[in-house]
Design goal:
Elements lengths: L3 E2 L8 E4 L9 H14 L7 H5 L6 H12 L5 H19 L4 H13 L3 E5 L3 H11 L7 E4 L11 H10 L6 E5 L2 H10 L2 E4 L25 E2 L9 H9 L3
Parallel strand pairs: 2-3, 2-5, 3-4, 5-6, 6-7
Antiparallel strand pairs: 1-7
Length: 242
């Protein structure tokens, strides 16, 4: 299926990448880290379906919600430290980058586009994932939602990445896999390439990834997620504004 597109601005963009589920196939690691964390505090039976509603939401916000829902007495900072420790153990040994996304990053880097990672993960998690996948040398600018006032769907993390790159929001393209991330890009005044995170034929909100309302503000949507993502199509869409 041909990706849906809408017109874009004319300036050469910087490109801001979400990390988990966009660059790196790390959502299964986050699920397992969350499951192990909850289990430590007496919460068992946490399922992938329960985890999937937090895809695209920052780790701190996720744990704040889970702490309230399950009545966990431990402070959020403690839960965050435990989950990050579990995640780092997993990601450093088995993280992989999506092949076409790696090709996209390499092509943009070679062409001289300013690049950054803007993620809801902790700084340590971002560093570990980029190191494990070999993408670190291509993505030197990184922003964690823990370093700004608000996580996605608020625009703070993307606006800070743009500031560090010296780019105006209108000169930026965001690459995202989740509805909160696409909304954050829209609120930041940035164009967006959406590569919906699809498992079992559906996105976390039950959409099929065919370009429904959750991704309506994106300028380029790859229906079917990473399986349909094409680095050449994405690069051509970005490069047309050069």
């Amino acid at each position: 299926m041909t990706p849906r597109t809408t017109p874009r601005a004319s300036r050469t963009p910087a490109v801001l990448f979400d990390l988990d589920g966009t660059l790196v196939d790390s959502e299964p690691h986050y699920y397992e880290a969350g499951r192990l964390t909850l289990e430590r505090y007496g919460v068992t039976g946490f399922t992938w379906e329960q985890h999937s509603r937090f895809i695209g939401i920052g780790t701190r916000e996720t744990l704040e919600t889970l702490r309230a829902e399950y009545g966990i007495d431990a402070p959020v900072d403690e839960l965050l430290a435990v989950k990050n420790r579990h995640y780092l153990e997993l990601v450093t040994t088995s993280a992989t980058a999506f092949p076409q996304m790696r090709a996209f990053v390499e092509r943009l880097h070679t062409a001289g586009h300013p690049l950054a990672v803007a993620s809801g993960s902790s700084r340590a998690a971002i560093e570990a994932a980029l190191e494990a996948t070999g993408l670190g040398s291509l993505l030197a600018v990184r922003v964690s939602a823990e370093e700004v006032g608000r996580g996605k769907p608020e625009p703070d993390v993307f606006l800070e990445a743009a500031r560090l790159l010296g780019a105006a929001p209108a000169e930026c393209v965001v690459v995202e896999d989740s509805a909160p991330g696409v909304e954050a890009a829209h609120r930041a005044g940035m164009r967006c390439i959406a590569v919906p995170y699809v498992t079992d034929g559906q996105t976390p909100d039950g959409d099929t990834g065919e370009g429904g309302a959750a991704f309506a503000s994106a300028g380029l949507v790859f229906a079917g997620g990473q399986r349909k993502f094409d680095a050449q199509i994405a690069y051509d869409w970005v490069a047309q504004s050069n």
